[in-house]
Amino acid sequence: MKLKVKHQESYSRLELLLRTLFGFLYIILPHLFILFFVSLWGAILRFIAFWVVLFTGRYPKSMFEFQVGLMRWSLRLSARIYNVADGYPAFGIKGTDEYTQFEVEYPEKISRALVLLRLFFGFIYVYLPHGFILMFRGIFVNILVFFAWFIVLFTGKYPPSFHNWVVGQIRWNYRVSLYMGYMTDTYPAFTGDELPEEA
Amino acid sequence: MELHPIPQPDELDIREKEDASGAYLMMFATTALGLPLPIVNMIASVVYYFVNRSKGRFVKFHALQSMYSQLIVSAINSYLVIWAIVNLVNNKPFTDVFWGLAIAVGVFNLVYFIFSIIGAVRAHKGRFYYFIFFGRLAFVQVYSVKEKQHEKPVNLPPKM
After folding, report:
1. What's the ipTM?
2. B38 touches chain A (CB under 8 A)
3. CB contact under 8 A, A62 and B25
């Protein structure tokens, strides 16, 4: 998996203010409205993909690409909500973005035993440990986002270390989602940093 | 009737087979969302058809066959669900006719489920599988060569 959000040299203060004051109306509301319905379709495909993987050991490629596209769209939106990227996020599964990047290698085979293991014990060995850490990390990230807002407003720069923490939070969440969505057999790492093989 | 070439299993790539197979699994859409609304399956089948119809005739055929059959099944299921809701809301008793229909619909769904699974497995192997009536309808629609609607050219130069 490769998830990147480009750290810009400078951030637009005007966009920051616009996003803060009206972002809910012109970014979040229209995107979430459409994402809600697209996500319903995503949920249907995920359920179907589960059975296909269970019986064939292979995730249907079209469904896989759809899920990756959906996650990419969500990443574009999250990047704006956290103020780590400027510009307006593109709509659609095939939308592109100059600031965000999300690639997942298509697995030719998915372990069926692991599928069952995740189904029955995923809560214990994935959601519980990762969720526990992500919850506290998330609180810290939100504090960073709060301070970063003022820093961007006064300096036009987003501190790189803050940026790494915020992007790391998204990356970590995505790793867990990929694993629990049966899209990879690689157990999610306990870090938000890029892994050597992801660079 | 002139037909487009019919592909053999080894001429289809795995992706086409998967996409064709997926069409029959739209019957699980309601289960996936956890909503007791048969119309969800119908919507899923229609969406799946329109999303995948450009992926080749093999995929289009299976998606269309699945959609046609799903339309009928969803209509019958919806009728039963609406009847049940009306009875519950108006506090009316469930008559024997209702239960008769409910059992018939249950059997019908079971048969549909079995045939859909067979269809999904066959499609995954790159093979055709024809449902009664809908199979022929979908096949003709997808594989028959349509005559050109306009023999005369439509775009002409301006009159001099």
Report:
1. 0.75
2. no
3. no
Interface contact B107, partner A, CB < 8 A: no
CA A51 to chain B, closest CA, distance in angstroms equals 9
What DSSP element (H or E) covers A4?
strand A2-5
Contact A144, A165 (CB under 8 A): yes
Between CA A36 and CA B101 the distance in angstroms is 35
For residue A12 the two structure tokens come to 């637009």
- pTM, to two decimals: 0.85
Q: What is the 3-state secondary structure (H, E, C) of A23-34?
A: HHHHHHHHHHHH
CA nearest to A79, candidates A97, A103, A104, A105: A97
Are B23 and B123 contacting, i.e. CB atoms less than 8 angstroms apart? yes
Dump pLDDT digits (tens) for A102-152: 999 999 999 999 999 999 999 999 999 999 999 999 999 999 999 999 999
A185-to-A61, A115, A123 alpha-carbon distances in Å:
16, 9, 16
Query: What would the pLDDT profile of B67-123 be if each residue is shown by its tens digit?
Result: 999 999 999 999 999 999 999 999 888 889 999 999 999 999 999 999 999 999 999
Strand partners, A3: A102
Q: Which residues of B touch A54 (CB under 8 A)?
A: none
